[in-house]
Every structure is written in structure tokens, then in C-alpha cells.
């Protein structure tokens, strides 16, 4: 049986006000509505489509975050994932991308038989580093194929299509492997009423750092105090100002050119 893992993250809703806390300048998660990251709906859909292609496969959702993140995990389960693991521990607060990758790597090591395919989004909408899947790949010695819009499994390998400004590429990596998908990869399915009800009964295994001690995890490896990066100050976004109006009295074109020169646009 093929084990597929979908990495998901709970983030502040993009329609809420996103801001940093006043004390340690970490993301204020309590001050905004929390939702499953939009790209992670593509992540789960990609994992489910791979399961449907393979037939003999399971999809496990893996997430890291506060206890509240169970809401995002349940959303993924309602889409059709089979079970889930949530790593939650107060000591994880303020962890950077490297620490997050290390923690998730150790969670993946607890999956019996190991993960054959790990699916993630190309970047979260809060941190937007786009680096965590690659970091997991380094720790787990797995190939990473990123920013895919089409994926399939063939002959024991993951095959995907990546498109960028330079063209379209066909990429291939032997399993076990990690892939990241972008928003063009699919159209996420809506959870059905049956799926929502079923998700309430599905298992979410909650792990703490103590549960990962055998993998070598400890509190002094994660968290804000041990992070390689930190924010020391922030400046609120300035309020919007009214734009410059040009009153055309026959010289509107000249005024426009002068304004563009003053702003160094030309």
C-alpha cells in the first residue's frame, strides 16, 4: 500500500487583519480568523487524486501548530483524507522554517512504513518562505520536485509538469519523494455533508515534542529563542493616501510626464 502524506497549515484568513504581536513580533494568530491555507486545499486535492490513481493507497494529513489547528486538519479530512497527525506544543511557538522542517521530518518518521509521497503547497500565505518542503527533503534524504501543475505516478516514480517564465518542463523523481503543487494543479473539491460528518469520526493523532524524543527532538531545537531568524521591530502599513489628480486644461500630457519624471518612472 502506498502512503501519501498531505502537509497542511492553519493560517490567519487573508480577509482578516494580519499583524504581528507587540511582545515578540510573531504572527498574531489569536487576533484573526483561522483557516486552512488556501494552497493546502490544492495540496489535499492532489493527494486524493494520486490515491484515486493508485487505488491501493491512503492519505494522511500532517500539520504543525496550536491546538486550534485541528480545525484546518478536520477540513482536510472532510475532503476525503483518511487520518491525520498534528504536532502541537507550546515550545514550538516562533519556530522558523528550518525548525519547522526539522519538526515535520521527525513527525514523518513516526509513520509506520514511512511516507512514499509527501505533497505540500509551493508556499504558505503567511510565512511565504516556500522552503519547508525542501528542508524536509534534506533531513529525510528525499528528492523534492517543486511548483508542479500536473502530477502522476508511473513506474515507481513521481512525474510532474512545471511551468515558469522560461518554458514547460517534465520532471521525474524516484519514490519516496516530496512534491509541491501550485494553484494551477487542480480545482479542490468541496467537502460533502457526508464527508463533513465522516471527518468528525476520523482519527487525529496529537503529538508533542516529548512524543518525538526517540527521533531526537527536544525543546531546545525549536521555538523563538532558538530560531536562526527573528523580527526585532515592525512598522505598521501607512494609511492609503489620495492619488494625484491632473486637471487637464490643455497641458494634461505635460503634467503627466512631469509627474512620472518626479517619481522616477521615466
Describe this entry's structure for a reader:
- With 266 residues, this protein is of the alpha/beta class.
- It is built from six helices and eleven strands.
- It has a nine-stranded mixed beta sheet with strand order 9-8-7-10-6-1-4-5-11, sandwiched between helices.
Map the helices and strands:
Blueprint: E1 2-8, E2 10-12, E3 34-36, H1 38-54, E4 57-64, H2 70-79, E5 83-87, H3 97-108, E6 117-121, H4 132-140, E7 144-154, E8 157-164, E9 167-174, E10 177-181, H5 193-199, E11 204-207, H6 252-262
Parallel strand pairs: 1-4, 1-6, 4-5, 5-11, 6-10, 7-10
Antiparallel strand pairs: 2-3, 7-8, 8-9
Helix pairs in contact: 2-5, 3-4
Question: Pairing-aware structural class of the strands and helices?
Answer: alpha/beta
Order of helices and strands: EEEHEHEHEHEEEEHEH
Extract low-pLDDT stretches: none
Shape: globular
Q: Characterize the largest beta sheet: strand count, sense, and whether it forms a barrel.
A: 9 strands, mixed
Average pLDDT for all residues? 91
Estimated share of beta-strand residues: 25-35%
Percent helix range = 10-25%
- Give the tally of β-strands: 11
Strand order of the largest sheet: 9-8-7-10-6-1-4-5-11
> What's the tally of helices?
6
Radius of gyration, in angstroms, nearest whole number: 22 Å
End-to-end gap: 61 Å
Amino acid at each position: 500500500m502506498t502512503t501519501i502524506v498531505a502537509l497542511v497549515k492553519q493560517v490567519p484568513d487573508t480577509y482578516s487583519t494580519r499583524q504581528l504581536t507587540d511582545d515578540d513580533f510573531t504572527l498574531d494568530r489569536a487576533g484573526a480568523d483561522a483557516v486552512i491555507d488556501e494552497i493546502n486545499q490544492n495540496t489535499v486535492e492532489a493527494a486524493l487524486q494520486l490515491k484515486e490513481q493508485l487505488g491501493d493507497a491512503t492519505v494522511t494529513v500532517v500539520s504543525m501548530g496550536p491546538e486550534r489547528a485541528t480545525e484546518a486538519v478536520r477540513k482536510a479530512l472532510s475532503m476525503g483524507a483518511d487520518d491525520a497527525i498534528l504536532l502541537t506544543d507550546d515550545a514550538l511557538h516562533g519556530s522558523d522554517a528550518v525548525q519547522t522542517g526539522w519538526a515535520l521530518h521527525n513527525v514523518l518518521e513516526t509513520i509506520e512504513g514511512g511516507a512514499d509521497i509527501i505533497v505540500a503547497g509551493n508556499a504558505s500565505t503567511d510565512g511565504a518562505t516556500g522552503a519547508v518542503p525542501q528542508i524536509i527533503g534534506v533531513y529525510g534524504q528525499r528528492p523534492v520536485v517543486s511548483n508542479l501543475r500536473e502530477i502522476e505516478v508511473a513506474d515507481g516514480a513521481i512525474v510532474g509538469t512545471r511551468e515558469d517564465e522560461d518554458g514547460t518542463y517534465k520532471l521525474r523523481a524516484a519514490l519516496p519523494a516530496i512534491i509541491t503543487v501550485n494553484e494551477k494543479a487542480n480545482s479542490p473539491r468541496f467537502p460533502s455533508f457526508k464527508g463533513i460528518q465522516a471527518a468528525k469520526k476520523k482519527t487525529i493523532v496529537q503529538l508533542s515534542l516529548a512524543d518525538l524524543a526517540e527521533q531526537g527532538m527536544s525543546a531546545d531545537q525549536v521555538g523563538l529563542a532558538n530560531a536562526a531568524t527573528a523580527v526585532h521591530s515592525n512598522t505598521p502599513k501607512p494609511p492609503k493616501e489620495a492619488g494625484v489628480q491632473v486637471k487637464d486644461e490643455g497641458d494634461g500630457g505635460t503634467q503627466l510626464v512631469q509627474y512620472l519624471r518626479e517619481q522616477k518612472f521615466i
